[in-house]
Amino acid sequence: MVTIKQVAVHAGVSFKTVSRVVNNDPTVKNINREKVLKAIKELDYRPNRAASLTRRKNSNIYAIIADELLSVPYTFDIIRGAQEIAWQKNKELLILNVNETQASIDRAIKSLLEYRVEGVIYSAMYHRQVAIADELKKIPTILANCFPASNNFPCVVPDEQQAGEDITDALIRKGYRRIAFLNLNEHIIAAKGRKLGVINSFKKHGLPLDDLHIESVIIGQDDGSEISTSRESAARVIDEFKPDAIICGQDPMALEIYFVVHDKGMIVGKDIGIASFDDWGSIPQLLQPNLTTMALPHHAMGRWAMEYLIEQRTDIVHHSLPFKLIARDSF
Length: 331
Prior knowledge:
- The chain has 331 residues and is an alpha/beta fold.
- The protein has 12 helices and 14 strands.
- Strands 2-1-3-4-5-13 form a 6-stranded parallel beta sheet, with helices on both faces.
- Helix 8 links the parallel strand 6 (179-183) and strand 7.
- Helix 5 (76-88) runs parallel beside helix 12.
- The longest helix has 16 residues, at 189-204.
- It is elongated, with a radius of gyration of 25 Å.
């Protein structure tokens, strides 16, 4: 392995100058910086991060605790957003995926303390309330896509109400007036916020609420599981309520409802409009016609959370970020 002293000899500078270049010290003269960078490239030198960590006062390491995050495709964008900011600021990012067991979380926190991380993003699979271990109070921590049971940690979350209002506004602007909203489990945060947004849009446009039908088709069970009545509910609502557009609680539900519409001999985008939420993986592009949906702001949440940590902010904020309307051909 090439050493820092060998780089210094090759560049004709002191090893302290090489160290300052490697650590992005802005006071290094440009001519010396160019010599060192040239030597690093020619010798294929790679810094020993472990040794550097033992010498530095600050670790420059940040972390994401991913609470079941890796089980849903679009949540990878939280990691990508945080990683972009970390790279821009020359920081390391450690990712730990945990489940809801206390043992899993305790082990992750122990690792973070051992690595001397300077900040933590605690991110959940879906927008919900979480209980955060007191041990994390030892490290600057911000929650992403979730919020604390007590107002003792900052957080950044998606603006569910704005999403419901925006997608309904888009339908109304296209001329749709009789709309059914087949919602998620009514007990979850996303369902509550989106329902309120849909209603607000109808009121804002002065439309009668009699022309708006809302029901939950993802239903919670006593054992904590969920069942979907999407197809049955959609078929009944189309026959009885006769909407000219349907808003789906999430894209996988929209996929099912496309089948229902097809079975009834109707054409999506012509006989009935379909809209949805989440921009879930490849589903919106695979559906024909392509599905118009509200994209969750996971990438923006990851960036915002990392910037909050690196700026060393200490204010306890509950910050909401907007969804983005991805307009396609389904209405």
